[in-house]
Amino acid sequence: MADEENAAVETPTETPSPSPTPAEKEAAFMDGLDKVLAGDGAEGAETTQDAPGATAAADPSAAAPSATAAAEPTPEAKAAAELKAKDAADLKALNDSLKAAGHKPLSKAAEERFHALNAEARKVPELTKQVEQLKPMAEQAERINAIFADAQAAPEQIGTMLRYLKAVNSGDPAEMNKAFETIMAEVQHIGKLLGRSVTGFDPVTEHADLNAEIEAGSLTAERAREIAAVRAKEKLTEQNRTRTTQAQNEEAERRKSVDEGIAAVNAFGAEMQTKDPHYKAKVQQLTDKGVFDGIKSDTHPSKWASAVRRAYALIPDPAPAPAPAPVGHMPLRPSGAGAGSTMQAKPKNPEDAFDMGLARAGGRLG
């Protein structure tokens, strides 16, 4: 027993090594990181094996996959990058050509405008496709509008008609009753215009003198209705005559303004033809760009000349053409009255005269 106790006393007790403090761990980690960055990967890994995150620091590929996946561009981003690169290449080519021609490169504002125009130009194919898809619908709308115009239908009349048809075709008794009331109101309206008796309307009630004669016994109700119908017809005829006269006056006024507009445009053309040696070239540019057509359709004839004058002033003088190499004598074209003349077609209407005037020179804008 004593021996055992002595043995226990003599057996040396192993003292546990103290755990490293947080400061020591951080120092060991930084030391290992320095060695990894210096290229001593094995020693750095051995030194920092107890430091949290040391493996990830020693092996960058361990954390790389998620970062690589996040950095992968989307198809949209790739397409945007390609367009941006193409714009940059186009802009460089444009600036290079300007420099080669002795001009300054585009300003910052002009470059931004260039990019904006390029972006708009890329929309053209898609917009063209949409226009082609919309053409059948537009043609159908034009046919419907032509039908309504031929019927002289006012917008409120069209709305009433469509609501009536919808109610009739609904099969709903409540809606069909609304349709019935609508059609009865229309029948009464037409009866009043024609002086005819219909349910809910007696044309005699519109004439106090006829009612007085009926009450006095000097006129029968049947004869009174005949007189009322004649009066209604005369009134309707007079209204149509007034409407026709008004339309004719409006058309005459329109033709007068068109004639005056054409005369003013031609006067400006004659003036510029004598003053500007580039007159024909500028007019050709305006014609090719559709400026005259736009002015004619969007501007009142009284303002045609001023609009043409403004558009003409915006056209720069064309660059001088290079002198052609001599190729021998060219025959002169005949000139003078009657030389090479052909029969001129007569304009069908004032608008046609405007177009023909724009198409001719000799003092007329064309």
What this model shows, in words?
The structure is a single chain. Helices cover 70% and strands 0% of the residues. The chain has 366 residues and is an all-alpha fold. The radius of gyration is 47 Å and the shape is flat. The relative contact order is 0.03.
Which helices and strands, and how do they pair?
Elements: H1 2-10, H2 22-38, H3 41-47, H4 54-58, H5 64-71, H6 75-100, H7 108-150, H8 155-170, H9 173-194, H10 208-216, H11 221-275, H12 279-288, H13 291-298, H14 304-313, H15 350-359
Helix pairs in contact: 2-3, 8-9, 11-14, 11-15, 13-14
Keywords for this structure?
single chain; 366 residues; 15 helices; flat; disordered C terminus
**Mind telling me the C-alpha Rg?**
47 Å
Q: Beta fraction of the residues? A: under 5%
User: Helix amount, in percent?
Assistant: 55-70%
Please outline the major beta sheet. none
Order of helices and strands: HHHHHHHHHHHHHHH
Average pLDDT figure: 78
Low-confidence segments, given as residue ranges, are: 4-14, 36-58, 332-342, 361-366
Number of strands: 0
Sum up the overall morphology in one term: flat
Alpha carbon gap, first and last residue: 137 Å
Counted by DSSP, the helix tally is 15
Strand pairing plus helix content: what structural class?
Answer: mainly alpha
Can you describe this structure in just a few lines?
By secondary structure, the protein is mostly helical. It has 15 helices and no strands. Helix 11 packs parallel to helix 15 (350-359).
